[in-house]
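Course assignment 3, question 2. Fill in each field.
Student: A.L.
Task: Predict the tertiary structure for the chain below.
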Amino acid sequence: MQHDNRPSAEPESLHEGTEKVQDDEQPPPRTITMVRDSRKGMFYVPKKCPGLRNSRHSKGKIVYPQVYAIPLSGPDMEFFLRKYWPVFLPEDTDFFESYEMFLSRFPGRPKELETIAHLLVPIKSGGIWEPLGVVIAHNLTQESLDSMAHADELVRKVHEIFEFDREPGWYCFAQPSD
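Answer field:
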């Protein structure tokens, strides 16, 4: 007699196609074919570094907190999850469930996706697009600005992970409320 020890709250489909790996071992990424809109030309890509954040007039020009990041669309996040999530995703995976999964830490998650921010991206036709984005650097510390010397390498790795060539830019970001 077999006993099913899975928690009853999880759908059966999340356990189909589970790849067995050791705790310290990462499953290899899957090969995924998925058509995604490049969004090229849809939004502004500010390339000029804003300088170190400054919130006091007494110290000079006000410089708002910004991140040098690559914006991600919903289909980009879905592509990433289908490629790296430890189990195969059902076709009917809910967007909000995907969003939470994308933000979670899981075995096989590439270390290049250490920092994710909720970006405020100006759209050329007017308005603001509010995607998540992979943070390459930020202007909150001089150390992070200095890390821009190695930004091209991290951008290349992010491009390989997502299999796209979207440009990074300097964007304001939404700060979580306490």
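Instructor remarks: Confidence is low (pLDDT under 50) at residues 1-23. Residues 44 and 103 are 25 Å apart (CA to CA).
Grade: pending
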